[in-house]
Write a structure and sequence with these properties.
This protein is α+β, with helices and mostly antiparallel strands. It has one domain. 31% of the residues lie in helices and 29% in strands. It has helices at residues 43-51, 55-59, 76-81, 89-99, 108-111, and strands spanning 5-13, 21-29, 34-38, 63-65, 68-74. It has a 5-stranded antiparallel beta sheet with strand order 3-2-1-5-4. Strand 4 and strand 5 form a beta hairpin. The two termini are 22 Å apart.
């Protein structure tokens, strides 16, 4: 049986920029365990930022740390539209990477494991 989980894009806007870029995927399972899939060099910074901030704040305005705005974007509608609601996390990551390698380049290392 596949465990239920929520998945979110981690969006980061650098200081003095107007565009958010996708820097990771955050998965929260049914036992509230957080797993982040990010570029290795950004993992600790993003993980600490997300774990210290209530989810409603991350969904709305985000937080500003070290001059960067960090937000989460729910993937529920995306997963529903693409038939990915009842698939393991590994399938979701594979789908994201293969359909848009430019934005999800950081997932490559997780797919090789």
């Amino acid at each position: 049986m596949i465990r239920k989980y929520k998945a979110y894009r981690i969006l980061v806007e650098p200081n003095d920029d107007y565009y958010f870029s996708i820097e990771g995927i955050c998965v929260i399972d049914d036992q509230q365990k957080y797993t982040l899939f990010t570029h290795a060099s950004r993992h600790n910074f993003l993980r600490n930022s997300i774990l210290k901030t209530p989810l409603p704040i991350l969904f709305e305005d985000g937080i500003v740390l070290k001059g960067e705005t960090i937000k989460l974007e729910d993937l529920e509608d995306f997963r529903s539209d693409h038939g990915l609601l009842d698939v393991p996390v590994s399938h979701l990551l594979h789908y994201l990477y293969t359909t848009n390698q430019k934005h999800y380049f950081f997932l490559e290392r997780y797919l090789e494991e």
